């Protein structure tokens, strides 16, 4: 969603802002803009990609500036609604990520006082309010403005008469990168890596006053000392590295992601969370909370925890929990979130914390809001994920979940040992799937001609059927639905015809015979079937139209190999359809609004 950047230094700021905005493109946006401070404030905005903005922008000189990628919420993606927004006099410019929920009241108040508004955005009230309170000192004016704002924001503000930038945050992310003779701020780490790996994560309620040589942080009017974090991501991690798309690069990184996850794995390690975390306290049990792809990792974890540890688990969408009046009675919760900034997740976490629930966050982003809200945080080893469609972060989540579970006493020690050796072999299994890429691409070419697809799975691969369908729908725009295979006959069968291919995940476990029955039922309705089957399965291929073989893992760890296969299937289907794979329409990487 919206991304903000800001620079104060000794170099021309315009190219720096534009490069930084390109590094935030992955968040999803539909218009962009910059403001550069020289003798006055020069502003340029455009609809569409940053490339368009770059081509259409005049060359502004100046070493202080702010920039923005906007994902429209209040008002269409037009030039007028694009950020930066200014006050009436043009002496202030503001970029904002988040939503100001009381903007309508503020706007009416400001209009009554004579302020003139140009856009339909909620953001525009911010420069007008700052102007109202401005008496020669930007820091004071911003400090007075913030208590008037309800909702979420990360803002960066510049003023015509000041050689500094003021930033503030409440609910939306903001990181300050500390350079030499320059400082740069952004919604996320990637734009900063070119300049520094030393960062300050701003917390809610804090204000940063930034010059080229100094960064002062204050809270409630008093200066505070913040710790400096060192980021271990590299510039190469945020480049395409010869691949056509970030998504393909990220799919190919998965053997390494898995390797990294198991490199230091020692089954005799002290668990991150003790036995009490899994226990049922006063009738309250374990909850897993997530959205989208991360929710599907939660479904796999539920199955694994229930089977291996015999502990009941509730998996809920954070986007549902946050709006329920009843707080789910959970003693402990695992929150899965790649970005650590998903608004639905953060609101639900706050609600659970208020009800004394202890939360373990599993996230990919150090210093993210989820990590700061959680009681404990486990970091996934995926590195930066820039394609909107989650791939390697999902596999990294599964790896952390498996490791977490396998450090606990489990019901069946033999199975535990088998899973541990499976996970150790998993980088090779993942590579085997990547080596089969051209066959998977052929299957994708076949699927890419259809408008509707079903994905079916059972048991631990039910969540993977949902994930396979989500992946292909979001990047190829083919309508795809995932189902628990046994549910087809309870309704979805009505839609099956010869032009509705079904992708079936066939597992060698207690669900095998039932899945073959489901495939026969589907074939009787003339729908083509593509089946993901193990190397040692020689029955299923007799029933279906196409097969994709996956390595012989235990069914409990098969979600990893099945998912990687389905990611490639989605990627190539989208490629054959000519879709903008890394930036699917209407979607954002980090969903920072509820
Ligand atoms: C799909 C996808 C989304 C995210 C969801 C949650 O490919 O990426 O469904 O999984 O928006 O995001 P996080 O995990 O950052 O909370």
Record keyword descriptors for this entry.
single chain; 594 residues; alpha/beta; eight-stranded antiparallel sheet; seven-stranded antiparallel sheet; 18 helices; 22% strand; globular; binds fructose -6-phosphate
What does this molecule look like?
It contains 18 helices and 25 strands. Helix 16 (462-476) packs parallel to helix 18 (558-576). The termini are close together. It has 594 residues and is an alpha/beta fold. A hairpin with a 2-residue loop joins strand 13 and strand 14 (222-224). The strands form four sheets. Strands 3-2-4-1-10-9-11-15 form an eight-stranded antiparallel sheet, with helices on one face. It has a seven-stranded antiparallel sheet with strand order 5-6-7-8-12-13-14, with helices on one face. Strands 17-16-18-19-20 form a five-stranded parallel sheet, sandwiched between helices. Residues 291-294, 337-339, 342, 345, 389-390, 470, 474, 591 line the site of fructose -6-phosphate. The site of fructose -6-phosphate has 14 residues, from helix 9 and helix 16.
Radius of gyration: 25 Å
Low-confidence stretches: none
List the quaternary state of the chains: single chain
How many beta strands in the DSSP annotation? 25
Brief digest:
Helix content is 34%, strand content 22%. With 594 residues, it is an alpha/beta fold.
Record the SSE blueprint.
Elements: E1 3-8, H1 13-23, E2 31-37, E3 41-47, H2 50-56, E4 64-70, E5 85-86, E6 92-97, H3 103-112, H4 125-133, H5 138-145, E7 153-159, E8 165-170, E9 175-178, E10 183-186, E11 198-201, E12 206-210, E13 215-219, E14 222-224, E15 229-230, H6 246-252, H7 254-263, H8 275-278, E16 285-290, H9 292-309, E17 313-317, H10 318-321, E18 330-337, H11 343-354, E19 358-363, H12 369-373, E20 376-379, H13 392-406, H14 413-435, H15 437-447, E21 452-457, H16 462-476, E22 479-484, E23 502-505, H17 512-524, E24 529-534, E25 546-550, H18 558-576
Parallel strand pairs: 16-17, 16-18, 18-19, 19-20, 21-22, 21-23, 23-24, 24-25
Antiparallel strand pairs: 1-4, 1-10, 2-3, 2-4, 5-6, 6-7, 7-8, 8-12, 9-10, 9-11, 11-15, 12-13, 13-14
Helix pairs in contact: 4-5, 7-13, 7-14, 9-13, 9-16, 14-18, 15-18, 16-18
